[in-house]
Predict the structure.
Amino acid sequence: MAVHVLAVLAYKDGEAVTSTLLASSVNTNAVVIRRLLPLLQAAGLIETTKGAGSGSHLRKKPERIRLDSIYRAVETDEPFTAHSKTPNQACPVGYCIQSALDKVFSSAECAMQEELAKTTLADILKIVKASCSGSDKKRK
């Protein structure tokens, strides 16, 4: 959702965009967007103003926003989490499963973040614009 919101802001190219318009694009409630915007602002990705002519816009050029920074801005939980309850320590699997998975999950998260770091918001916007121009032809 965060990438979607930032892509809309990039598409609007500096124009202040309201949470209502962002919510419409994402197809969610504006309250959901209003909860997301402070996280993006705290990460220095957007600036949001209130009052007349209010809205949000990017603080950086899309070429300077990588997907890994967006991910870190909004994801507060680990993508791979331990059991909510401690497994049965008397069971050989229950006793060792978390340590066995920790290394694998850590490696998977590192790989995911490395992959996200290869893509910028500008790359996403370019794909979106190319896809839109193709679908515009299909709609006519």
Observations:
- Helices lie at 2-11, 19-26, 30-42, 67-74, 92-117, 121-139.
